[in-house]
Specification:
The chain is an alpha/beta fold. An 8-stranded parallel beta sheet has the order 2-1-3-8-7-4-5-6, with helices on both faces. Helix 1 packs across helix 10 and helix 9 runs parallel beside helix 10. The structure holds zinc ion (ZN).
Length: 293
């Protein structure tokens, strides 16, 4: 299984989990390999590819650093390396989606900071919306229908805003926080769960509602921030065991339906109750579950 990553993912000067975590997970894969996983370097996206999902003025701002406010709208600051970082980390999502779709195998990218980004600006530690970009690249290259499953703690309002009029993309969003929530249009479903006992059931319902529909590929935004010890989004009662079950459920469902998957890391933040090693362990659950036989 190919997992995309390169050191450019963490090239930003801004020190935050979103700009460092891909490196932590990559280091963990180097120190304790998971059988069958091959870490592959992706190509950076071109401006034209990014502009499938974002306004040119915003893309130019991220590249040049000007205007100041727009270039920093993700909340991750701006530095000379910002463009390189997001070009590669979003390029990894596109590469994983192509790998999954064309070869009908699961794949992934150690990318995070995607689903809040809007067409016209960044938002909530997200610069470019690699989920929307990858879906639109796949459609432009001949895919007929793309599924996006987003189980980050927070709602994926950026993805919905960019893709709401694209009938060939279905968005299934199950969140545990109202942050970045939206009124779903006909192509999306949103469930916000406030009781951990309902969490897996809500994901099952969201997936079951798709039964009978055909998708060429599923992009899975697999946040670990619903974990009860995550300070940014965690819901009491959501344990590591429950998140492992979630991963088995989503990968198992798509496998049954014959839909290859491309995952991303999405949210999950260190804090007083969640050490770096634990957080990396949670993201490794996704990588293990992706290797469905
Ligand atoms: Zn989140």
């Amino acid at each position: 299984m190919k997992i995309y990553y390169c050191p450019e993912y963490v090239a930003s000067e801004h020190d935050f989990d979103t700009t460092r975590k891909p490196g932590w997970v990559a280091a963990s894969l180097a120190a304790s390999p998971i059988a069958g996983v091959e870490v592959v370097r992706p190509e950076a996206l071109t401006s034209a590819q990014i502009e499938l999902a974002h306004d040119r003025a915003y893309v130019d701002a991220v590249r040049t650093g000007e205007p100041h406010g727009l270039a920093r709208s993700s909340g991750l600051g701006w530095c000379e390396q910002a463009w390189t970082m997001v070009g590669h980390s979003n390029g990894g999502v596109v590469a994983a989606v192509r790998e999954a779709w064309r070869n009908r195998v699961n794949s992934g990218s150690l990318s995070c900071g995607l689903h809040h980004a809007r067409r016209e600006s960044g938002s909530g530690f997200c610069t470019f919306n690699g989920l929307a970009i990858a879906a639109l690249v796949a459609l432009a290259e001949g895919a007929r229908a793309v599924l996006i499953v987003d189980v980050d703690a927070h709602c994926g309002g950026g993805t919905h805003a960019i893709l709401r009029d694209e009938a060939r993309v279905a968005l299934v969003d199950v969140s545990v926080s109202m942050a970045d929530s939206y009124e779903p249009g006909p192509t999306a479903s949103l469930r916000v769960v406030r009781d951990a006992r309902r969490y897996l059931g809500a994901i099952r319902e969201g997936m079951a509602a798709l039964r009978g529909r055909k998708f060429d590929v599923c992009i899975y935004n697999s946040g670990m921030d619903p974990h009860e010890d995550c300070a940014l989004g965690g819901l009491d009662g959501v344990t590591a065991a429950m998140l492992a079950e979630r991963e088995a459920l989503v990968f198992g469902w798509c496998h049954e339906q014959g839909i290859p998957m491309a995952f991303t890391l999405a949210g999950g933040y260190t804090g007083a109750r969640l050490a770096q090693e634990e957080l990396v362990g949670l993201h490794r659950l996704t990588i293990r579950a992706a290797d469905v036989k």
